[in-house]
């Protein structure tokens, strides 16, 4: 049997802006997976299986979160998903991808690479060491203002229809899937797609993601013939490894957003609210669950199988330790606590 990965919490360091402003550090990791939030009128302790404090390296997050096991399960034919959740500016994109400034001419230092690049390297390493013949491909989408757009297709991004079928569940019609065989090739696809993704600057984050992004690696192992005397042939398998970089939850009052930024924020918050509602209902015992409203947003439709279906899902909840972000931090921790109670049947 395979158990879903429990949520992991990552506390980023205080930023220079927060330090200059005189913000206090109100979040403390107490060890053994315990997070303590201490501020005026707020004193709460949360327990998780894994907590990474401000000093944790990118490698420590990869090895300690169970990400390596997810890669191996995807090769074995399971549907695996990792998604980063938290307030805008809490370190979600950094955790998944590493520094935002990286490009073809200015690659990130190896130690700063995120869960995505480390998973790609692990996947290709595993594919070389196993006797099965693996075929790898990738698709990269964003949900921007409730429109699904392909980040790998040439030309300006255009909206793609989201369909449903009994056999496939919810799926995106006409999305581009690109084959790759090397680490350089998939790194280029990640870079190409992320540069086309919608971002903007506001009061809390200079590079705020204005869309939810989903990069899916499709892993197909071809059937391997075995000598009759040694046993039967190994059947083909098809697994997926999906990375979901959610746009950050935000309060328009705090970010100073107006006009188009405000419309984007409202769409982001609406889809995150729908996701939270689905998680709250999934956290209830199976006998007490009502209908799960996956159709309430494009995001929950695309994550339906990952959240409550036959997949294995890892949630990385990113939080700021600053007193200025207290309410959003508490909201994220409560969110992760509910997600911890969700069980799936992979």
From TrEMBL:
A GO molecular-function descriptor: microtubule binding
Family stated for the protein in its record: Belongs to the TRAFAC class myosin-kinesin ATPase superfamily. Kinesin family.
Record has Ion transport as a keyword: no
Compartments where found: Cytoplasm, Cytoskeleton
Annotated GO biological process: microtubule-based movement; mitotic spindle organization; spindle elongation
Coiled coil: none
Annotated residues for binding of ATP: 86-93
Organism name: Eudyptes filholi (Southern rockhopper penguin)
Official protein name in the record: Kinesin-like protein
Lineage, uppermost ranks: Eukaryota, Metazoa, Chordata, Craniata, Vertebrata
Keywords (A to Z) from UniProt: ATP-binding, Cytoplasm, Cytoskeleton, Microtubule, Motor protein, Nucleotide-binding
């Amino acid at each position: 049997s395979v158990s879903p990965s429990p949520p992991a919490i990552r506390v980023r360091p205080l930023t220079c802006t927060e330090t200059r402003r005189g913000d206090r550090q109100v979040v403390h990791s107490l060890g053994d997976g315990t997070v303590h939030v201490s501020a005026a009128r707020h004193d709460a302790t949360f327990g998780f299986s894994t907590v990474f404090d401000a000093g944790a390296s990118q490698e420590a997050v990869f090895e300690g979160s169970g990400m390596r096991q997810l890669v191996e399960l995807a090769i074995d034919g399971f549907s695996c998903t990792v998604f980063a959740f938290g307030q805008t500016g809490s370190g979600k994109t950094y955790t998944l991808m590493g520094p935002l400034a990286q490009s073809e001419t200015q690659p990130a230092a190896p130690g700063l690479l995120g869960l995505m690049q480390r998973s790609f390297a692990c996947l290709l390493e595993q594919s070389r060491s196993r006797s099965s013949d693996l075929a790898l491909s990738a698709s990269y989408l964003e949900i921007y203002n409730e429109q699904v757009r392909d980040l790998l297709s040439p030309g300006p991004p255009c909206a793609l229809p989201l369909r449903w079928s009994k056999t496939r569940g919810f799926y995106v019609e006409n999305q581009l899937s690109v084959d790759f065989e090397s680490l350089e090739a998939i790194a280029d696809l990640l870079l190409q797609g992320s540069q086309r993704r919608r971002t903007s600057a506001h009061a809390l984050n200079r590079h705020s993601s204005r869309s939810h992004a989903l990069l899916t690696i499709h892993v197909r192992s071809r059937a391997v013939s075995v000598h009759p005397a040694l046993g039967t042939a190994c059947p083909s398998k098809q697994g997926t490894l999906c990375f979901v970089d959610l746009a950050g939850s935000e309060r328009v009052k705090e970010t100073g957003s107006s006009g188009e930024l405000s419309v984007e924020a409202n769409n982001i918050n609406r889809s995150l609210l729908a996701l939270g509602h689905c998680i709250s209902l999934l956290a209830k015992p199976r006998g007490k669950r009502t209908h799960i409203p996956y159709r309430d947003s494009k995001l929950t439709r695309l994550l339906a199988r990952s959240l409550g279906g036959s997949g294995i899902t890892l949630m990385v909840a990113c939080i700021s330790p600053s007193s200025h972000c207290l309410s959003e931090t508490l909201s994220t921790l409560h969110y992760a606590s509910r997600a911890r109670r969700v069980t799936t049947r992979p």
